[in-house]
Design brief:
With 850 residues, the chain is α+β, with helices and mostly antiparallel strands. Strand 24 and strand 25 form a beta hairpin.
Length: 850
């Protein structure tokens, strides 16, 4: 491991100050498996065209229209192909059996062969080939579930008569890449969501013309791209792969279609996206005489090809592949020149994992038992609300600091950060490094208020400085954010656990939420902090061990991994563009500063840690602890993501092409590459990563509900009563967050890193602006603060809906807009108020308790 980081330090001098240790371990066995199970379904009707038909899904049915019917020749007579106008509708019953129905009243207006078909969200965009007509008509086909019939809507003719092509939808546009009748490559797009759509010419593929090329859309770690696979087995064999970026209108040559040095040639082959980063290609030829049964997989991140399976029967060409009810369907097409096929082939992905061993389960169970024991152990100390929320101020500074660190990184670090580095590069590391810049400011400006005013929650300060209404708004904003945060940090490890065990993701969420609620309710903040310390140790140990094993799992070790990453641009640290809509260096640093100011100045989960130490000086040390840890830990987890990239670049066959979550790449490595027992330890680390955030959210939300709402607006009662309310609030918040996680489980979220950053910026930026405004601006008042907060909400809505800035800057725009507008608006509402101990100038007059 030392070599890995020394090579990085050599390339990037800023990290050479770090002292790193360790070394690679021995390699381990690798395995390959079969990922698809094939079956034969009900064949297409005899009247259906099989050669280049229009086909796609609409409202749960499969539409099959037009195409060519192929008739075998007799004797020396050649086979004949006759275009058809037939339209066939396929439906599934409860058992999954497909039934085909021919509706003569809904056939096409004329016999047609598909030039290109684009699968839309709710139907098909069809462009006919210029045969037999001299032009290429375009139209939409949609299934009307109410009338149980197909609706056809004409579109403007395709601008150029075409021989053939393929198309896909990206965002609001349908893209058609084709070859014109004049033999020229062309690319057009059509705005399918626009009121008055029109065809718009874009940059065509720079490769040789390929009228029977296949296309698919897939993510590459940065965004969605259009991938084109062109091939022939003629005098000039072709096996090209190209990617098209719709954001830049530019094409890039990718790895040719070859496995272990053996080229494959995709002549009009069906392709389809699989999982989050794979594209499957059915039946590419090794040579003109090779049977077309091989299924290849292309990985968009590592730019590698691998043969993943072999079909039991020959696979067709000149047709399309479709995902339908969780299965891949290939219908019709041709098996060889002049031989059509009515066969309907169906492929079902195998379940992902083989499951954990008994030793792994034992490790996980022991870990969970320790959690329960810690909750019951600290319950004996939690006899008052001061114990429950402040741990009697007996927490050592280093334990509070590690708890802060675990809360801020947690599951987002353990899974999403390696996934981000694996899919992109190291630019996002500056988001974490920004914590070093903000820690001194928070210690000087923010910390004295919470320690010297002897508050239980951060939002008590807002009432003292402004008004009880501001306190209530602050508390509600915090609870709203924690509601979303609990859902995400529950959902993230549930993905990994579901992948590992095959247990329903919903069951995983319920089990994890129940355990977290249990020990947090019993032990309060003291149980939270000490379990965080243990969980950070498990989290870090698991990551280090994985990194060591990964380096030992490839020939050449870390040296080879670094060379691969550097050669593919995966170690990029800087992007000096001044484009604030993309993740440039300025955007990432600005987002990091905003995120850390929000966390450390206005987030009760962090503020509560400041209140558990013996003194203000100890609290300051606890704040410096995560700042000291952030660089080595960031290097560890970004290095882990880069190593995953190198490992799967060398071993593309170890990736499952139907892995359907981008953040599950590290858990996939854990369950497929690590020995029994160690896998259980690292899965326990995923639990640790999640629970170190979840328990903090539960306890801090309970503190806000109890102190800022229940206790604030209810007559005084015994402390034991408020302790009961605190425990009830913990359970209630946990159950609400669990419900949100269950909803997330049914949603399609490409990257939880992105979603978490969006939630943080949209709901928390203005709240931090209120604190900084009150602490640093003497003339700030209630009216100005409320106006600033309202304008901040409007600004956040505008930037999120228009895309004016990258989502990482949402935190900064929310904070800055609230602060600036609040500062300006306060001049219009002058009001005198005793500010003793409420601004940075006057808080210094109150001596710290130490």
């Amino acid at each position: 491991m030392r070599l890995f980081f020394l090579r990085l330090a050599h390339r990037y001098w800023i990290f050479s100050l770090l002292i790193l240790g360790g070394g690679p371990l021995s390699g381990f066995a690798q395995s390959n498996g079969k990922y698809l199970n094939g079956a034969i379904q009900t064949p297409l009707p005899a009247s259906a065209g099989t050669y280049r038909a229009f086909s796609g899904k609409s409202h749960g049915v499969l539409l099959w229209a037009g195409g060519g019917k192929i008739y075998r020749g007799e004797g020396s007579e050649k086979a004949k192909m006759e275009p058809t106008a037939a339209l066939v509708v396929g439906t599934r019953d409860a058992a999954g059996k497909i039934t085909w129905k021919v509706d003569p009243a809904a056939q096409l207006s004329a016999p047609m062969i598909a030039g290109a078909t684009v699968q839309l969200d709710d139907g098909l965009l069809c462009v006919a080939a210029a045969e037999p007509t001299p032009h290429s008509p375009a139209f939409l086909l949609r299934w009307d579930p109410d009338r149980q019939r197909v609706q056809r809507s004409d579109l403007p003719d395709f601008p150029v008569p075409l021989q053939g092509g393929s198309g896909n939808q990206i965002g609001p546009y349908a893209y058609v890449s084709a070859v014109s009748c004049a033999g020229e490559p062309i690319l057009f797009r059509y705005d399918v969501e626009g009121a008055a759509g029109r065809w718009e010419r874009r940059t065509p593929c720079p490769g040789p013309p390929a009228p029977f090329a296949s296309t698919a859309v897939q993510a590459d770690g940065v965004g969605e791209k259009l991938y084109l696979f062109a091939g022939n087995t003629g005098p000039n064999p072709q096996n090209d792969t190209w990617s098209y970026d719709p954001a830049t209108d530019a094409w890039q040559a990718r790895a040719p279609i070859a496995v272990a040095g053996q080229p494959y040639f995709p002549v009009a082959r069906p392709v389809i996206d699989a999982g989050v980063h794979h594209i499957l290609l059915f039946g590419a030829r090794r040579d003109p005489n090779h049977r077309q049964r091989t299924i290849l997989a292309y990985h968009t991140i590592t730019d590698t090809w691998v043969a993943v399976d072999t079909a039991a029967q020959e696979l067709p060409e000149h047709t399309r592949a479709h995902w339908w009810a969780g299965k891949i369907v290939l219908a019709g097409g041709t098996l060889s020149p002049g031989v059509g096929s009515l066969t309907v082939r169906e492929f079902t992905p195998d379940p992902l994992p083989e499951g954990l061993s008994g030793v792994d389960y034992l490790v996980i169970v022991l870990y969970l038992v320790i959690l329960v024991w810690m909750g019951t152990h600290f319950m004996r100390r939690g006899r008052t609300t001061a114990d429950y929320f402040k741990a009697g101020q007996r927490i050592p500074w280093w334990a509070a600091g590690i708890s802060i660190f675990g809360t801020s990184l947690s599951a987002i670090t353990y899974m999403a950060v390696p996934a981000k580095a694996y899919g992109t590069d190291w630019l996002f590391i500056w988001l974490n490094v920004a914590q070093i810049l903000t820690a001194p400011l928070v210690i000087w400006l923010v910390l004295p208020f919470f320690r010297r005013l002897n508050v239980t929650t951060a939002y008590e300060y807002l009432e003292r400085r402004f008004h009880v209404v501001v306190r209530v708004i602050g508390g509600l904003a915090f609870l709203l954010f924690q509601f979303g945060r609990i859902g995400i940090v529950l959902f993230l490890p549930a993905i990994a656990l579901s992948v590992v065990t095959g247990v329903s993701i919903y069951t995983c969420i319920v089990v994890m939420a129940g355990l977290s609620i249990f020990y947090t309710v019993l032990g309060g903040i003291e149980a939270v902090i000490w379990t965080d310390v243990k969980q950070v140790a498990v989290l870090t140990t698991g990551a280090v061990v994985s990194l060591l094993l990964m380096g030992g799992g490839v020939e050449g070790g870390f040296d080879h991994l670094v060379d691969i990453a550097a050669g593919d641009g995966k170690l990029r640290l800087f992007n000096f563009d001044f484009d604030f809509t993309s993740p440039s260096l300025w955007v990432v640093i600005g987002g990091g500063i905003g995120t850390n100011l929000i966390n450390q100045s206005s987030d009760q989960t962090f503020v509560q840690r400041y209140l558990t130490t013996r003194s203000e000086k100890a609290a300051a040390r606890s704040l410096l602890t995560p700042a000291a840890l952030v660089i080595p830990i960031s290097l560890l987890f970004f290095g882990l993501g880069t190593s995953l990239y190198g490992f799967y670049k060398v071993n593309p066959g170890e990736l499952n092409p139907v892995l359907n979550n981008a953040d599950a790449i590290f858990p996939w490595y854990i369950i497929t590459q690590l020995p029994a027992g160690l896998s259980g330890l690292l899965i326990a680390g995923i639990f640790a990563a999640s629970m170190s955030s979840l328990d903090s959210s539960l306890n801090s939300a309970s503190a806000v509900i109890t102190s800022d709402f229940y206790r604030r607006f209810r007559k005084a009662g015994p402390d034991r009563h408020y302790l009961t309310i605190a425990r009830i609030a913990t359970v209630a918040m946990g159950l609400l967050g669990m419900g949100f996680a269950l909803l997330l489980a049914g949603a399609e979220i490409k990257s939880l890193w992105d979603e978490f950053s969006k939630v943080l910026g949209l709901f928390a930026g203005g709240l931090a602006g209120l604190f900084l405004l009150g602490m640093s601006v003497r003339h700030a008042n209630t009216a100005g603060a409320l106006i600033g907060f309202a304008v901040s909400a409007a600004v956040q809505y505008w930037v999120s809906s228009t895309g004016a800035v990258h989502f990482l800057l949402y935190t900064f725009t929310g904070l800055a807009s609230c602060y600036i507008v609040g500062w300006a608006a306060s001049w219009a509402f002058p009001r005198k108020k005793d500010l003793h101990g409420l601004t940075i100038r006057t808080i210094r007059k109150i001596k710290p308790e130490d």
